[in-house]
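Encode chain A's predicted structure.
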Amino acid sequence: MTNASFKAPPNRHPNQRVGLFVDTQNLYYSARDLGRKALESGGRYVDYETLTRYVAQGRRLEFATAYVVEREGDTAAHGFIAKLSNLGYRVRR
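Encoded structure for chain A:
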């Protein structure tokens, strides 16, 4: 996903409520497997801030929950979890 601005489709209204549930492991592997050539030329990643804006698109985002697999000794996961929290996601391990 890019950081492009999104225009809400006409059937969405500001009083509609949205809840976002994200399986981070599934998204990571899906982005990774979209193509090895893409990985070699800069990689593919999930932009969670853009994902949140895209899902809400003119509606009220009630909450965003991210499910994370945290392995023992994985220090990189702590930074990832902190970034998700800073974006407003409730992180569930």
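The chain is about 40% helix and 20% strand.
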